[in-house]
Design a protein that fits this description.
The complex is a heterodimer of chains A (138) and B (252). By secondary structure, chain A is mainly alpha-helical. In chain A, 50% of the residues lie in helices and 3% in strands. Chain A contains 5 helices and 2 strands, in the order H-H-E-E-H-H-H. In chain A, strand 1 and strand 2 form a beta hairpin. The radius of gyration of chain A is 16 Å and the shape is globular. Chain B has a single domain, classed as NAD(P)-binding Rossmann-like Domain (Rossmann fold), CATH 3.40.50.720. The termini of chain B are far apart. The radius of gyration of chain B is 17 Å and the shape is globular. Classes of the chains: A mainly alpha (138), B alpha/beta (252).
Amino acid sequence: MPSKQEIYDKVVATLVDSLNVDPEEIRPDATLQGDLGAESIDFLDIVFRLERGFGIKIPRGELFPESIFQGDPEYVQDGKVTAKGIELLRQKLPFADIDTFAQDPQVNKISDLFTVEMICRYLEQKLQAEEATAQSAS
Amino acid sequence: MRLQGQVAIVTGASRGIGRAVAELFAAEGARVAVVYRGNREAAEQVVTAIAQRGGIAKAYQVDVADFAAVKNCVEQVLADWGQVDILVNNAGMIQDGLFLQMEPEAWYRVIQTNLHGTFHFSRAVVEAMFRRRRGRIINISSVAAERANRGQTNYAASKGAINAFTRALAVELASRNITVNAIAPGFIETDMTQAVRNIAGEQIQKAIPMRRLGKPEDVAKVALFLASEDSAYITGQVITVDGGLSLGGIGS
């Protein structure tokens, strides 16, 4: 399995290609939309490139789930994510920094969860899980 | 050779506009997938004609209305040639009739072939284009989308939807260097327009400011422009190729 640094370097290279940004702009806490200017179609492109780069399959909606709350008042009220909504986020995005978000859970800041670091954590968990499956199979 | 090294899929390529597009693209260096539904002999003739002029083409049988079959077809093209650079959604049909008498089947069939067929092939090729960050999708529409003819509610609806689809898809794919444009031909001398031409040939000719029907090649040349690098900055447009028909211009 690649090291944390190897994963990070590969993610940086992927984002440079996909978003046409300079490597210097990419920091672990950089947000994909706000800082790096990603649009919806870029997320799909990033997924394709990560799949190829790491030789894994990323089910659609696993790394970048879309419209998690569907405007359901149980999860969002007055522009803020409810406690139940926070729980749902933890479920759907176990690799994101939900604790920081929960301190000021404004729904329009949800895109800030999608950072470079988040992608790396997702890949670490994914690759570990794949390795575990491979070992138990052999 | 404006399409050297490229791979093009042309639907409805066994005759008419599709055939002219396939032959012109092959003459410009593209490897061409000649997609046909029923007439194998005609499709093979196109392939042979292209080969005789030193071009490369192969016939693929598929009904554009069947998404599973379309997906298989695109996979086969990718297996054969490794890439798809250009898609020309040309396969289309008419089943004219006054709306008061139109059976749902006539409506469904025309929408299924013209509109859904365009969706099916676009959907099947888009990922390959997306990954390579290049692509040209060219939809063959019709002036009938904007200029109403009696007896063509189904056809006009299908072509109007293709124009809207062209614009909407163009916006989604623009950042990936994939352009999506449409051509709206007027009266072109093809099998599809033969019945109408037989009945109203002279009348039609008078209604066209250029006083002649279009040839499939007139449309193919515009398709070549849209497929080539020359049109790199054009997307989401519907280009009318009709000798002035849609301009009106009554009077002598």
